[in-house]
Amino acid sequence: MCRAASKEAAVRFELGIGPDSWGVWFPADPHQPPFEQFLDEVNRAGYRTIELGPYGYLPTDPVVLRTQLDAYKLRLSGGFLFGDMHGVDAWETLRPELDASCGLLQALGAQFLVLIEGMYTDLFTGKMVANAELTEQEWTRLADVSNRIGAYVADRYGLRAAFHPHAQTPIETEEQIERYLALTDPGLVSMCLDTGHHVYCGGDVVSFMRTHHERIPYLHIKSVNRGVMAEVASKGVPFADAVKMGAFTEPKEGAIDFKAFHQVLNEIDFEGIGIVEQDLYPTEFDRPLPIALSTREYLAAIGLADSV
């Protein structure tokens, strides 16, 4: 756990970083750095916890992955499952990847499985590929499948399911998130609050965290560039293009007041996991390490991380 020295910086949580901060969106892609670079640079930047990223990016053999993590003194906090959980055949469709990912997570001692609903736009073209709003029947299925996954991964793998609201999915606005929380069982499904996506979709992370902190044990820490976001909103820029334009930026440079967010974490006595993420796909291979270092230094300066 991260233990800050001063009274004002008494937040107790484990700080880590994800492959997303190295521009990793897919199991394999020539625009992404090799996993060996990711692990080495995470270690050099002073982080000790990572996420799995897309299943298949890191080695899927638990013995091989354990050897790699041990070499860099890293531990795994969790992984994610991305798909249409509101679909008629959602459980059957998602089950193979669910079992593969969770088996690996369990073997490596991870704690969380992050759930992300499928996007309603094509990731690259921005073309609508599904309805942006769920029907009443789809809301019911989404809640039922989420609860089923939560119960399944807890019983079978000892993992905790945490739902991640995501830009350009049917659960992106605060109103939609609050409906999801009301429909799902808090004993089965918690929430991963992604600070960047929350603001990208018009939310207020400080007030939302204060109100809903009992459901939020897991954070993705990132920020957005307000100027780029204004252009994205006015022109309807697709998500992937928005990322290329720099919609997501370092916490010290973005629109989110992380000092105020830190204050809320202190007020609620937050104790959980915070994973640094900055959507960078695609990016030059020499770009992620300086950003990871700079972000950790900033978070340490405001009490959200130990000194580097």
From TrEMBL:
<protein>
    <submittedName>
        <fullName>Unannotated protein</fullName>
    </submittedName>
</protein>
<feature type="domain" description="Xylose isomerase-like TIM barrel">
    <location>
        <begin position="39"/>
        <end position="278"/>
    </location>
</feature>
<dbReference type="InterPro" id="IPR050312">
    <property type="entry name" value="IolE/XylAMocC-like"/>
</dbReference>
<dbReference type="Pfam" id="PF01261">
    <property type="entry name" value="AP_endonuc_2"/>
</dbReference>
<dbReference type="InterPro" id="IPR036237">
    <property type="entry name" value="Xyl_isomerase-like_sf"/>
</dbReference>
<dbReference type="InterPro" id="IPR013022">
    <property type="entry name" value="Xyl_isomerase-like_TIM-brl"/>
</dbReference>
